[in-house]
Amino acid sequence: MFALILSTLVAQAGAPAYLASCAAPQETRVLATSQVIAPDNIHPTNRRTRFFIDIGSDGRVRHVMMYESSGDATFDRAAVEAAERFRFAPPTQGCISTSAIVPEEFNVPLLSFSRPAAVGSAPPALPTPPPEAAAICGDPAVEVAGLDIPDTRQAPGTAAIDVALDANAHVRSAKLAKSSGNAKTDATAVDEAKSAQYKFDVGPGCRPKPATYQLELTFH
């Protein structure tokens, strides 16, 4: 598991005074994990499965995006189901928790690559895992790389904003997708989404392309 750090861009005039009453900034943290439950008769062709876990601003798993397959659909499905059972604490900065991307992988059991020995022959040697698989080049995972801190504290609530990004992860547009229930909080969330900085996470050998990311912001 890789730690994710949410960078913060603070105005030159200094941090807003209300930040003193906010919780200390925190990175994405794993609260609970889950093991892959797969049958013994799987037939992988690669040593692992790898994916990005998209978590909401409350730490729930929103989506699991695979970018490297084990070569066995049963193991892949079990790995995704295990990832969906993970629990997280979302990244928080300046009284705002955000959605985030977490990379994860599950290694295939080494014995899954073994070949049965012929009758009367010596015990088989330990199997050698195959080389790494080529990445699955789907839509890029989007990571928040920088977030402005608003000058004033907003009414508590969670807003979701659909952010359209070009191939360089630059914002093309931002539109409210789910209201927090407070018009001022919603407007601040849209402004935050427009001014935020983003970056793409893609598998090895894959190229980024335009994407729409639903940024979720929870104001505390």
Structural class label: mainly beta
**What is the CATH fold-level name?**
TolA/TonB C-terminal domain
Whole-angstrom Rg: 21 Å
Number of helices: 2
User: How many strands in all?
Assistant: 13
Query: Could you name the CATH class?
Result: Alpha Beta
The H-level CATH homologous superfamily, spelled out, is TonB
Quick one: overall form? Answer: elongated
Task: Indicate the low-confidence ranges by residue numbers.
Answer: 1-13
Q: Give the strand order of the largest sheet, numbering strands 1, 2, ... along the chain.
A: 6-7-13-10-11
Total separate domains: 1
- Helix-strand sequence: EEEEHEEEEEEEHEE
Whole-number mean pLDDT = 88
- How much β-strand is present in the residues? 35-45%
Give the termini distance in whole angstroms.
27 Å
* Proportion of residues in helical segments: 10-25%
CATH architecture: 2-Layer Sandwich
Report the biggest beta sheet as strand number plus sense, adding barrel if it closes: 5 strands, antiparallel
Report what the structure shows:
Helices cover 11% and strands 35% of the residues. It has 220 residues and is mainly beta. The chain has one domain (8-111, 137-219): TolA/TonB C-terminal domain (2-Layer Sandwich). A five-stranded antiparallel sheet has the order 6-7-13-10-11, with helices on one face. Strands 1-9-12 form a three-stranded mixed sheet. The longest helix is centred in the last third of the chain and has 13 residues, at 183-195. It is elongated. Mean pLDDT is 88; it is low at 1-13.
